[in-house]
Design brief:
The protein is an alpha/beta fold and 192 residues long. The protein has one domain (8-185): 2-Layer Sandwich (Nucleotidyltransferase, domain 5), CATH 3.30.420. It is built from 6 helices and 5 strands, in the order βββααβαβααα. The protein has helices spanning 53-58, 60-79, 97-116, 127-133, 142-150, 168-187; strands at 8-15, 20-29, 35-44, 83-87, 122-125. Strands 3-2-1-4-5 form a 5-stranded mixed beta sheet. Helix 4 packs across helix 6. The protein is globular, with a radius of gyration of 17 Å.
């Protein structure tokens, strides 16, 4: 590669939520596409929603989503991801109203991506593919996903919070980024 070329690229993974938004960055060696590092954190919507000017105009949920959108944009600008993937919303038959909220969150995430780079797509990955990519079953619960992520030997986790202490949102975001990398490698015919 030419001198001065970047030697790494980053994939951002997002676990959507209207209060807790899991984020991760997988850094890959550009020559080998091996993971060189992983970090994760959860962005939190402000608890004092009444103090946000958007709350009075649009309601507390929309104000939280707008706040998370701004925080996500700052995350993108700091991490400079080449690709951004997010878990797609799903319908939980026990809580069908949650699908509408997740769809609003996805719209906020999409706006953050567009504000970061108008030409960059947001890749949505269905939950079953995310779980499968890390070796969990399609109906796996949060504990099974955590166990599956902890067993990934190629993460090279170097985040500030120890991997075993990450919350479910950050762990899910790692799984999303890992699933996107796997799908991307398969599309390049570089994975089995």
């Amino acid at each position: 590669m030419p001198t001065g070329s970047p030697c790494e690229l980053a994939i951002a993974g997002i676990d959507p939520g209207s209060v807790h938004l899991g984020t991760t960055i997988l850094r890959l060696n550009l020559a080998t596409l091996a993971i060189t590092g992983t970090s994760a954190r959860t962005l939190e919507a402000p608890r004092e929603g009444a103090g946000l000017w958007t709350t009075q105009l649009f309601g507390e949920r929309i104000a939280r989503i707008a706040s998370l959108e701004d925080a996500l944009l700052a995350f993108f600008r700091e991490a400079d991801p080449c690709m951004i993937a997010c878990e797609a919303p799903f319908i939980n038959l026990r809580r069908p109203q949650a699908h509408g909220v997740l769809t609003e969150v996805i719209c906020g995430i999409r706006r953050a991506v567009m504000r970061y780079d108008t030409w960059k797509p947001l890749y949505l990955i269905d939950p079953a593919r995310v779980k499968n990519a890390v070796g969990a079953k399609g109906n796996a619960d949060k504990a099974a996903i955590k166990a599956a992520v902890l067993h990934l030997r190629d993460l090279h986790y170097d985040g500030e919070i120890p991997l075993t202490l990450l919350d479910e949102h950050s762990l899910d975001a790692i799984a999303v980024a890992y699933a996107h990398r796997k799908a991307w490698m398969e599309s390049l015919c570089l994975a089995n």
